[in-house]
Amino acid sequence: MSGEAPVSGLLVVDKPAGCTSHDVVDRVRKVFGITKVGHAGTLDPSATGVLLVGLGKATRLLSFVQGLPKEYRAAVKFGISTTSQDAEGEVIREKPCSSDLEKVRAAAREFVGELTQLPPMVSAVKVGGEPLYKAARRGEQVDRPQRTVRVYALEIEHFDAEDQTATIYVKCSSGTYVRTLASDLGDAIGCGGHVTSLRRLSIGSFNEGQAIALAALENLKPAEALGSVLSLREAMRDFPQRTVKDAELDAVSHGRELGPAEPPRRLGELPVMSMKRSGDRPAHEVGMTTGIPVGILEPGGELIAVYRKGPHGLKAAAVLI
């Protein structure tokens, strides 16, 4: 795409199993012939599903969309615990399990709400500047702080009493480890467990129905591939948006603070936290709290900046012009 305007926007990619999230970024770079590409919300190599990939200026928006609620579907095997809490790890404990559907559902209800998790050793969480998985490869155990997460829904969609396996649906906050949740659920019913497959269904309103398979993207011609790229404005569609002009437009171009504004009231301006299930409330229902990103639009409707709501107004978080 040399000689053309730089590509900027968001791709909703359906990540295949067997590659890392960084591998996806490298392959997208080749499709569009650009180097400025990044992703939001890392998926394990064995996991599939929605991966948000930012191109050009959209790489500066990834930190905002990464914080949106996420939905997953996972297969869980009870009675076997592994080092990584998934099928990639070594078995560290086996215990006979004879749970039934009601027992598993009752245990699952206890994990809905705010809870603390201990990140698994086989993870990209950094302690002392080093990812935990590097220490795990050396056979080391590292003290790591627990993190507070929120589970909006944990549903047992299917349970096989003979095999002691389940299919679970999870809706959770950013930073939640589904494999840790599955392991803890197994411990709660008395026999441990691990994830055998994991698929991310959505990040905010970006869902698998909108995602393009990586192989399909690679088979497109460059001009065709552009048709799958969402605009910068669409990339921030789950957050409030505000149009500026005249003096405010000039202020944004220089990254200056904007005065307070009334919370958005029209449906199209409200943050969309879930497209399918209830369980959390969009920002406008709990008040426009400090720190919520607000997309700033120029009169023609193009996204030119992202501000955050402060105690006395809006402060620039990313200016794109």
In short:
The protein has 321 residues and is α+β, with helices and mostly antiparallel strands. It is built from ten helices and 18 strands.
Overview of this protein structure:
The protein has 321 residues and is an alpha+beta fold. Among the domains are: 70-203, Pseudouridine synthase (2-Layer Sandwich); 239-321, Archaeosine Trna-guanine Transglycosylase, Chain: A, domain 4 (Roll). Helices cover 21% and strands 32% of the residues. The protein contains ten helices and 18 strands. Strands 1, 2, 3, 4, 7, 10, 11, 12, 13 and 14 form a ten-stranded mixed β-sheet that branches. It has a four-stranded mixed β-sheet with strand order 15-16-17-18, with no helix packed on it. The radius of gyration is 21 Å and the shape is globular. The model is unreliable at 264-289 (pLDDT under 50).
Labels describing this entry:
Pseudouridine synthase; single chain; 21% helix; 321 residues; 10-stranded mixed β-sheet; 4-stranded mixed β-sheet
**CATH C-level class of the domain at 70-203:** Alpha Beta
Order of helices and strands: EHEEHEEEHEEEHEEHEEEHHHEHHEEE
State the helicity in percent bands.
10-25%
Q: Which second-level CATH architecture of the domain at 70-203 applies?
A: 2-Layer Sandwich
Note the overall shape: globular
Spatial gap, N to C terminus: 22 Å
CATH superfamily of the domain at 70-203: Pseudouridine synthase
